[in-house]
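[Solved] Which block belongs to which protein?

Original post:
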Amino acid sequence: MKVQIDCIPCQVKQCIATARKLTDDEKLISRTLKESLDIASEFEAHKNVFSLYYAMQKNAKKINPGRDPYKEFKKMFNEICLNIAPDLNKIAYDSENIFETALRISLAGNAIDVMQGHILNEEYLIQSVKNSFAQSLKKDDINFLKENILNAKKILFIGDNAGEIVFDKIFIEVLRDKILKSSDSDKITYCVRGGPSLNDSTLEDAKMTGMDKLVKVITTGVDLPAAYLPACSKEFNEEYDSSDLIISKGQGNFEALFDEKKNIFFLLKIKCETILTLINGRYELGEVVVEHAKI
């Protein structure tokens, strides 16, 4: 996705947040802000939003190289989501429409996002689940996703945030136990980021939540908060090319893949006006979405 003007203030704000997680030294934070503003001012030199993001986050991480600034945040939300997972599992497995219920749980997990600036806690997550259950979703969209999952030979599920990975795990468990044939239980591959990037899930999160015990897990091969194909590893791109169904979680992956000519279902919560515009205003801000790519 090309750089949108409205994305630039968010990127600067996130650089400041990252810097504050790496140091309490206001002089260092101020210097990082100034350098980030310099990078942001050259936004026209960047071919896409991911190039700009990468340059700005790389600058912020210079404060403490090699440290994951969101490591504790991710661990906390994995623990919170693992704590409420048994109740969500029961809701899903007791439901009359187990597929839709598990799908709505997975969608609710996309509320976990440090870019939003919300005070995220267990109560907020539970409310997000309630909101996801209450929102109207088109039955045709849900049934079309289910049909594609049943008919696909190979599925690549591209995850998004830590914590959210637990909600995705519930959905995938339901697919394995109740929707797919036993012979198809291994056709799903789950993808995490190739390195620390905001609060996005990595292999460490996949292991902590047990996702790696459920399905094959790979990485994008790059520490970007999106599956931006030109930057991703050869392994990821081969998996992507050979999969006949892509399930893409979150706004970052949507920004990276929305114009791809591929059988992709985007599952996300709309968190900003830019995404609302890209989806042509068919939804409301704050709604969860099941959106099929127009091949």
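(Second protein starts here: sequence line, then its structure tokens.)
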Amino acid sequence: MRVASLAAYLYAIYKLPALARRLLGRAKATDRELAPTHRRAAAAILATALAMRGVMIKACQAIATRADVFPPEMVETLKQCHDAVPAKPFAEVRAAVERELGKPLGAVFARFEEAPIAAASLAQVHGATLADGAEVAVKVQYPDIEEIVRTDLRNLERLCRFYEWFDPQPLELLPLLQELTRHLGYELDFRREAASADRVRAIFADDARVVVPRIHPEHSTGRVLVMERVSGIKITEKAALEAAGLDPAEVVQELMGAYVRMILAAGFFQADPHPGNLMVTPDRKLILLDFGLAKELPEGYGLGLFELMFSMMTLNESAMIRAFQELGFETKTGNTDTFLLITRRMLARSESGSFEGEFTEEMTDELFEAIRQDPVVKVPSDFVLVGRVFSFLSGIAHTLGHRANVLAAMGAGPPG
């Protein structure tokens, strides 16, 4: 009922004014005129999500990553769902851990902190000490979250189907919901997250500058993940980095180098590089955390990304079109000139009018804005995730007073 009430409210604030404008013979509302409506809608969605948790939180997080589909006012408001989730009571957490491990808490842990380090949509993290003295972080999935997720997804699917039948739209909602469902299935299985952490650690096996916390598999299950507890400086805390004797420019270079290696060379990456998941040690090691959202790219995707960047740098339009197609972009009409129009809009946001090695937030926003205004373009979800990652990295670099130059990080050569 709460979801249905929210859906009815959203329909009313968008559709009724649009109908009134048509009846009065007025032009369709502009993005600027709709901005207050977007903010009201986002506030209502956020309030419902924080009350219901589960899939609603994840849906908001997904919306906040799809700037190619949703307006910036909504994206900005719903970003709060990344760090505004209230924690569950410790009694529930304790019961969940003991049920999963089949033992009393004291039989596994010499100490278990009642106050969580962090709380998210599906789980929260507590500090603890194992019986053998090892300091660990324990990620605990909320009780009954799987059933809650299944129920929420069924309700959202019913609403999507009804809406698309009642009021067909150019943007199909069900494919977005199906994409969310697929990622949620991944995140609910902590064994997959453990495997993803191990896989990323293997990518950097020959590079001591990148740290991925080790998993304790003997104490981990599909709903409880026990990992090495690591500490460092939050990557955006410039003053703390400098106080530790670290050069923010070198930190940015290490960060970009790590993601270039994951995305362009290995084709497997941690896809959620917000500042809470990235730390730096006083001896300049980069710590990567949280692999619930890790992504494997199709074979050759890294080379396709490099070709797109190189064609944008050299202003080679035929190469741009070819690169877009290789990356999975499509148009409903088959007219590839749309790709050139989008690229020109992106490049217009750079100082030189050509790609200089950095996917800035402004360029990425311009890309998604162009696509929103021309819905004939189909954007592959792989590219959305990669674009989001590079945009986040650019934001982190700018916070530190530097630039996140992809080409510099890869030595201006193709991925190996």
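Accepted answer:
You had them paired correctly. Confirming on the second one: The chain has three domains: 1-83, 85-230, 238-416.
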